[in-house]
Structure formats: C-alpha cells, structure tokens
Amino acid sequence: MKRSVIGRIWPNATALILFAGFAFPVYWMFATAFKPTGDIISENPVWFPTDVTFGHFKKAVDADHFWTLVANSVTVTVSAVLLSLVIALFAAFALARMRFRGRRGFIVTFMLAQMAPWEVMVIAIYMLVRDNDMLDSLVPLTVFYAIMVLPLTILTLRGYVSAVPKDLEESAMVDGCTRTQAFVKVIFPLLAPGLMATSLFGFITAWNEFPLVLILNKDIEKQTLPLWLSQFQTAFGDDWGATMAASSLFALPILILFIFLQRKAVSGLTDGAVKG
Amino acid sequence: MSVQTEGTDTAGEPAVRKARTPGPPRGEDRASGSPSGSRGAAAPYLLLLPALLATLILLGWPLVKNGMLSFQNLNPRQLIQHLTEWNGVDNYKEVLSGSDFWHVVERSVVFTAANVVLIMLLGTLVGLLLARLGKKMRLLLMLGLVLAWAMPVIAATTVYQWLFAQRFGVVNWVLDKLGWHSMADYNWFGSQFSTFSVITLLIVWQSIPFVAINLYAATTTIPRELYEAASLDGAGAWKSFTSVTFPFLRPFLYATTFLEVIWVFKAFPQIFAMNEGGPDRLTETLPIYAFVEGVGNQHFGVGAAISFLTILVLLALTSYYLRMVLKQEEDEL
Amino acid sequence: MKRKLAAAIVIAGMMVSVAACGGNDGKDSGKDAGPDSWKGQTLTVWTMDGSAPPQWTKDVQAAFEKKTGAKLKFEIQKWDGIQQKITTALSESNPPDVLEVGNTQTPAYAATGGLAELGDLKQQIGTDWTPSVSQSSVYDGKQYAAPWYFANRVVIYNKKIWAKAGIKGTPKTRDEFFKDLDTIGKKTDAEPLYLPGQNWYFFDGLTIGQGADLVKKDGDKYVSNLGDPKVATAMEIYKKYAAYSKAPKDKDEATPQQAQVFAKGKTGAFIGMGWEAGTAVQANKAIEKDLGYFTIPGATADKPEGVFLGGSNLAVAQGSKKQSLAKEFLKIALSDQYEGELAKLNGVIPNKQPLETNLKGNAVAEAAAPAAAVGGTTPLIPGWAAVENTPNPIKSYMTAVLNGKSPADAAKQVEGEINKRLAQQN
C-alpha cells in the first residue's frame, strides 16, 4: 500500500498546526513576561520580544517573602507527593496482585474518594484544623494535599503494578526470595517510571492548591506560592507583564518536571509493554 | 483543582493485562495467590490499611463535618462565636426550593457533557495521529501537548484571560486582521456563551494531552499480529480500526471518560478565576455556586448543603461506570 | 510481619508529625493585667496592602515599643479573599489583636460579635473625630472601631489633551464638565473619558449626590431601594458620563486597570483614586507632567458631586487577650502626630478635620478634600457587606442600564438578589 504525497503530508501538517495551537499560550506567557509594558499594551501585538526586559520578573520576585513561599511550596508539594506515593504503593500492590473479600468494594471506594469536592469543603476542614490547634502549619496542608491525590495515585499505580509481568515476581520467589524481597528487588525497579508518572498529578495538584491555604495559613511565613500569584491578578489588575512573569515563574518548575518525567513515563510504559 | 493533569494511564493497562495474563478461575474470592500460606490472608488488608485510614480520617472526617454543617445555621456570627445552631433541613429547603439550584444543575450537566465529548473525541484523534507520525514530528507534537498539560491551572487561566482580553488581547487582534472586524473590540466575558466558550477552550486544551498521550501509549501495546491477522482477512484501514484498535482501547476509553467527567464537573479555578462565574452568575457550575453561596457570601451552612447535593449529582452522573466496575472487576486478575 | 510494621510506622509517623505541631499558640497568651504585663508581649496588627506607608509603620512601631516595652508586629494583608480571612481569623483562639476593617464592612463585623467595644477609647481620644467618618464604626449605638483614614475619588485628567482641545481651566459644574468632554471628543482624537460600566463606587457617589438611599426599611428589615427614582436619576447621570467612553460596560475600573489605559495618553480623563495617578506614571513615565486633578463637579458650582468616602477603621478583636495593649496601640497610632503623618504621606483624609492641614501642597488631596464634606458611604447596616460580594448585583444593574434597559426594569431584575443577601445575615 503506497500512500500518496498528500497522504504523507497531511498528518505532518496537522501535527504542526496542533503543535502551534498547544504551545502558543505557553509561548505567549513567556513572551509577554519579557516585553516592556509599552509592547504589551500595544495596538499591534509584538510577536517576539525584541526589546527584552527583566523588570516584570524583578517585580514578581521582589514581593515580600517570595523565597519563603517558594520553600514552603516545594516542601509541601514534595512531602505530599511522597506521602501519597508510599501509602498508595501498598494499597496498589494489594489491589493489583491479591485476591480477597471486598476487593471491588475498595476499588470503588477509591473511585468515590476521587470525587470529593475539596474546594467547597474548605470551611469544614478549616473548623477541624482550627479546633485541633493546627493552623499556620505546613503539616495539615501536606496531609490534605496528599489525600487529595491519593485515590487517583492508587488507581493509577494499580495499573502499573499489574503491568509488571507476574512471572518475573514468581521466578524471583522460586530463586528463594520472600515476597517482600521479590517486590523490592524485581517489581519496584520496574515500577520506577510508573511512580514518576503518577507523581506528576500530585505535583501539580499540590502546587496549585489555593482555597485551603488561604484560610488555614494566615501567617505569611507558612503560605505558599498560589497566594503570591493571585495577588498579581488583584493588586495589579491588568498589569499583564508582571502577571505573566509571575505565571511563568510559577509554571516553570512544573513544566520542566513534566517534560523530564513524562518522556520517561511514556517510554517506560511502552517499553514495559513491548518487552513484557 | 488541577483536573486534567496526571501522569499516566489508568486504563491502558487493563487491556495490557488481559492480553498477557490469563484470568484465574472466576468467582474465587479467597485470599490466595501468595505462596506464603495462611499468613497472607491478612496481608491485603494490612497493605490497604494506611490508605483506608488516611482516607477515613482526612476525607471522611471533613465530609461528616461538612454534612453536619449542612444542617446548621452557620454565618460569620456563629463561626466567630463558636455557636452551633441546628436548623434541621432549612438549608436544603432554601436551596432546593429556589430555581437557581436547578438551573445550575442543568448548566453543569450540559457543560460537563459538552467538554467531555470534545475532549474524548479530539483527544482520541490526536492520539491516533501521534501513532501515525514519524519520530521527529511525534516528538514535536508531544512537546506541545506536554506544555499545555503541564501548565498549572491558575497560570493557564491567567494566560487565557490575557489572550482573550478585550483590549490588546491577541485573539481579538487576529480575528480583526482575518477580516472579522466586529471582533476587534469584542468582549469575550460579556455573555454566557462566549465566556463558556473560552472556558471550554481552556479545559479542552489542557485535557486533550492526557487523553492523546495515554491513548497513543495504549495503541503501542496492541500486538502487531492482530493487525496482520486483520489485513489477511482483507480488512481496510477503517475496518482494522473498528475490529482491532477500538475494541482494544475500549476499557481505556471508558475509564478516561469517567475521569474526565469527574474532572470537568469539578473544574473550579478555570471557571472561577476566568470570570468569577459571571456575567450575572450565568457561568456558575455547581462547585462555583456552592463556593459563592457558602464561602463568598459567608452563608456556610447553605454552602455545605449545596456541596452535599453536588456530590449526589456527580454520583448520578458516574453511576453507570461505577456499576460497570463493580460487575467487571470480578473477572479481572 | 514486616509489612504490618511498615504500615504501622507510616501511620504512626503521620500521627506524630500531626501532633507535633499542635502547640503553636499559648506561648503569648499572657493574662491581660494592664501596663505591668505589657513588657515582652507581642501585639499583632493587620493592615491592608497599601494602607500604611513604611515610614509611618516604622515611626509608630518605635513610639509604641518605647512607650509600652512590648513588641509590635505589622502584618500586611492581601485583598484576595480578605473577608474569609478576617471572619475565620476572628474565630480563632489567637486572632490578630488589631485589624484594619473597611468602613463599609465594619457594621457586619460588629454584628458578629468578633470586634471589641471601644466606647471608652472614643471617650478618651475620639470626641473630635469627624462625625461623617466615625459613623461607620458605630453599630447599635456602640463604638466598635476607630476611624483611621479616608479617601474619595477625583477627576484625573490629561492637561495636554485638554489644552489641545482649547479648554482653559477646570469645570465647576457637571454641565461644564460635559461640555468640556464634548469639546475633547470633537477637537481631538482622544477618548474624552474612560469610565467602565461598573465603577460602582463612582455610582454610589452619584446616588449620595442625589440624596438617594440604596436600602429602605420594610417593617423590621431592610430591603432594596434600587427602584427609587432618585437612584434612577443618579444612574442616568452615570450613563451620560459613560457615553463619553469606549470602556467595556461590564467591567469595573480594575480590569483593565483604568490608570494604565489613561497612561497611554489617549484618554482625556478618568475618575479615580489619587494613588491611581502613580499607577499611570509607573506604566508611562512621560504622562507625569500632563497629570492634573479636580474635584468631581456637582450640579451647581457651590456644591461638588457626592462621593463615596471609602476608608478604613481600626478595630480590636474581641478574642484578643491583649485588650489594654491593643487600645494603647490605637492611642498612639491615631494620635494627632501619627494620624497627621499618615495623611501627609498617603494624601488621605484623616479622622479629624483640623489635621487636614497636612494635605497642603498635595494636588490630589486638595482636589479630594472639598468633596469629602459632602461624601457618604454605602448603607451602614450589617447586611450590606453581603450585597457587595462578588457578583455584586448593583454592578449587574449598572451594566443592564448601560446596555439599554430602563433603570426601573434593571432594578427589578436584581432586587430579588439584593433582598436575599440583605436578609441572610445571622
């Protein structure tokens, strides 16, 4: 079957257009951030920032306690992701590899947990945290963020665990490993890409969370970056330069993480399947 | 929050699993599969214990608290003075007797349906395109997809506001240059439909990558032999798609649709930050409505009642899939 | 067994870390026994972003720490979600001791029981507070806050454009103002006025100018009075102004930031707060020399247009364990010396008339001050704060009228929502 020239061109052409469509908003964010205000508020868009300025970034970074907030965001996000991964790994292993009474019930429970409307439960959560004297602390944030992503982490990891061929594990056990050893030595390394891919969801959820931290942590020393980002939208109204600079800074770590982890995750997934 | 972002497929995997591991005899629910004997009987429960406890404490407790608040008259005065004023089902009566709530439910369902259909359809097409592309182009398109996918929701929403800004927004400029001059000063956030259009574009833009990339990953696991067998039978491109690709991807598509329904329905920052549910509250979906009434208006008891009703609506929307999972899971493993 | 252990460790770890950070408060919950106990305490004061200039903060802090021996901590609050923040903070066992509360919000917070009564403080330092600015902190006949600073809108105009249109001097009446705007429209290519459809506080000023009330009493509760013909007259005036502008009808003055639009030098004037001139200069340095200010003119030359007197009060949290220290802070911060300093530094209207001498030489403040005397606020009832919550139904009303609805019809459309919100407190 020989494809016509058109048949070969259109997928590539479509891909190019799609690439432009998907990447443009991200590009425009960075481009705007580097442009002087005069080029931003301009009757004709300036497509490439020729007259590059770092003023907007400076304004964004100069905000009070910026670096404290960065540290808090990183701490909370990383801890929440690790916590949920550890808890989820146990559960996912049980759900993927064992048969027991109530298994389906557990799976459906986690699917239901996935639906929790966190934004509208903030007052209930606030009252619980307040009455337990735990306001202005990173710990409640961490555990709540972990639980927000836990259900999906479990369900996803379950898939990765069961994608690891069972005979590998069994042959390890034939070689004299206990089941735990077999898990640590055989399954865990194969799961690494899956763990990384799964962690992305956690990273982005915890990194973005706003309503909860707003009322739980009033002490600026204990706040996180979304509060800082939102201030640009309100305090500076339409200061698009500063807003886009702040957005760029906010998005950058996640973008890098995604590009890095996503390639690993996808290739891990496909490799695993092909070599199976 | 951060709905359409998550790193992997939940569902490409059942297909993989089915293809490779023969199912055990059905109907057996005894704990086994572990050669370590009777000690293993408790093992799955112990492994699940942390997850269950965490869910119970950190999700169950707030849910119960929220449920209790929904039967209370709770405003700033009661909150500040730590007063508990039970008011029976007044909050529910207030919500359910007004016409607002039902409009919002209707709007949420239509909004969710429209978005999910677009996401699944376009996501599948892009995923299939990925499978057809050469290596370089695939990498390029992947990069674009990952960029969109990874944008933190708050940042993405801000960028869309800027793209669609009435004055100096690049979208209006382009439309004007394309000859659509009435769009030069068009206010995208002035009407319900146009606001929803922008929100939908944002959500679809951010959600397609998840579907497309995972669908592509799932297609790579389809055994070549199946296609070869199909072409021996004289199947054309379309036939081999419907007879091989689609059946293979079906579990993946079901699971993804389920997730997208949840994520789109719960979409919060995209809608709230875009135009705060405006104009005239016409783009409030259930979560926004609950937030505006409860937290925004500081009418916390009513907000709790609405959030409880929100869960019920979401349950109804996903009940089909959940029932299917309950039936299907016994066949697996 | 190992698995069980591991699980137990994870859970135990969670619990320990959860418990470990409990005892955060209590460390400064010393009993309030008057001046003797002040030493070593820390008083926390919440001010809003932009309210207290650094110089003022520094001076007040030095004076306070010298006088009391206690520490003073200013915490600057962002506007985003401030209501949730204040409400929840007041419910905590360790709330901020003193906090800045917007004057229109004060009655609502007073009604919650979250603010301490300050009747004695008023006796000591507030007998000469300007009544029009003090009344917002009175609820149910009791003083629940102290007036801090106030500001009102002025017309900020581009002298170059006005000169180009051949206009000399500034208008003294509303009709003169309209005529000048006409002239600019005809003789220049500039937009005469930038006025978005939802500059709600300007509209509130117009209703004050008409002597209209936005709420009325119906039995023992308040209901919307938006359908009142006087409100309609105010709205018609607004509409006339808005006709000179190409600004969006469904946006307020912050989106886009009107000062930034003005900064491009293609707008004759806009109605804004004094500080917005700074925003304009920041966006375009060149605009600085063209900036001019005048009082929003009224129907006649002898009485300026009504204005919304926005401003802030300082309140003490009922839950604060440092009541006497908090009052001591208020005595210092609101003393003539520091109140005067604040007026001078920020160009805001102070809480006592004689202190207005501090505004001399400040062009914005001099334009603002004449109108302050005829200024007013939003209805000072606890239920009002809820009406202004996003989405503000009055903004919807304004957009509807500007889009062609009659004021009466537009009022009908939103009154249900307003009444619902007015009724919802408690």
UniProtKB/TrEMBL annotation, chain A:
<keyword id="KW-1003">Cell membrane</keyword>
<dbReference type="InterPro" id="IPR000515">
    <property type="entry name" value="MetI-like"/>
</dbReference>
<protein>
    <submittedName>
        <fullName>Sugar ABC transporter permease</fullName>
    </submittedName>
</protein>
<dbReference type="GO" id="GO:0005886">
    <property type="term" value="C:plasma membrane"/>
</dbReference>
<keyword id="KW-0472">Membrane</keyword>
<comment type="similarity">
    <text>Belongs to the binding-protein-dependent transport system permease family.</text>
</comment>
<feature type="transmembrane region" description="Helical">
    <location>
        <begin position="107"/>
        <end position="129"/>
    </location>
</feature>
<keyword id="KW-1133">Transmembrane helix</keyword>
<feature type="domain" description="ABC transmembrane type-1">
    <location>
        <begin position="70"/>
        <end position="261"/>
    </location>
</feature>
<feature type="transmembrane region" description="Helical">
    <location>
        <begin position="141"/>
        <end position="161"/>
    </location>
</feature>
<feature type="transmembrane region" description="Helical">
    <location>
        <begin position="12"/>
        <end position="30"/>
    </location>
</feature>
<keyword id="KW-0812">Transmembrane</keyword>
<dbReference type="InterPro" id="IPR050901">
    <property type="entry name" value="BP-dep_ABC_trans_perm"/>
</dbReference>
<dbReference type="InterPro" id="IPR035906">
    <property type="entry name" value="MetI-like_sf"/>
</dbReference>
<feature type="transmembrane region" description="Helical">
    <location>
        <begin position="240"/>
        <end position="261"/>
    </location>
</feature>
UniProtKB/TrEMBL annotation, chain B:
<feature type="domain" description="ABC transmembrane type-1">
    <location>
        <begin position="105"/>
        <end position="321"/>
    </location>
</feature>
<feature type="transmembrane region" description="Helical">
    <location>
        <begin position="139"/>
        <end position="163"/>
    </location>
</feature>
<dbReference type="GO" id="GO:0005886">
    <property type="term" value="C:plasma membrane"/>
</dbReference>
<keyword id="KW-1133">Transmembrane helix</keyword>
<feature type="transmembrane region" description="Helical">
    <location>
        <begin position="300"/>
        <end position="322"/>
    </location>
</feature>
<keyword id="KW-0812">Transmembrane</keyword>
<keyword id="KW-0472">Membrane</keyword>
<dbReference type="InterPro" id="IPR000515">
    <property type="entry name" value="MetI-like"/>
</dbReference>
<dbReference type="InterPro" id="IPR050809">
    <property type="entry name" value="UgpAE/MalFG_permease"/>
</dbReference>
<dbReference type="InterPro" id="IPR035906">
    <property type="entry name" value="MetI-like_sf"/>
</dbReference>
<feature type="transmembrane region" description="Helical">
    <location>
        <begin position="45"/>
        <end position="64"/>
    </location>
</feature>
<keyword id="KW-1003">Cell membrane</keyword>
<feature type="transmembrane region" description="Helical">
    <location>
        <begin position="109"/>
        <end position="130"/>
    </location>
</feature>
<dbReference type="GO" id="GO:0055085">
    <property type="term" value="P:transmembrane transport"/>
</dbReference>
<feature type="transmembrane region" description="Helical">
    <location>
        <begin position="193"/>
        <end position="217"/>
    </location>
</feature>
TrEMBL record, chain C:
<dbReference type="Pfam" id="PF01547">
    <property type="entry name" value="SBP_bac_1"/>
</dbReference>
<keyword id="KW-0762">Sugar transport</keyword>
<dbReference type="GO" id="GO:0015768">
    <property type="term" value="P:maltose transport"/>
</dbReference>
<protein>
    <submittedName>
        <fullName>Sugar transporter</fullName>
    </submittedName>
</protein>
<keyword id="KW-0813">Transport</keyword>
<comment type="similarity">
    <text>Belongs to the bacterial solute-binding protein 1 family.</text>
</comment>
<keyword id="KW-0732">Signal</keyword>
<dbReference type="GO" id="GO:1901982">
    <property type="term" value="F:maltose binding"/>
</dbReference>
<feature type="signal peptide">
    <location>
        <begin position="1"/>
        <end position="19"/>
    </location>
</feature>
<dbReference type="GO" id="GO:0042956">
    <property type="term" value="P:maltodextrin transmembrane transport"/>
</dbReference>
<dbReference type="InterPro" id="IPR006059">
    <property type="entry name" value="SBP"/>
</dbReference>
<dbReference type="GO" id="GO:0055052">
    <property type="term" value="C:ATP-binding cassette (ABC) transporter complex, substrate-binding subunit-containing"/>
</dbReference>
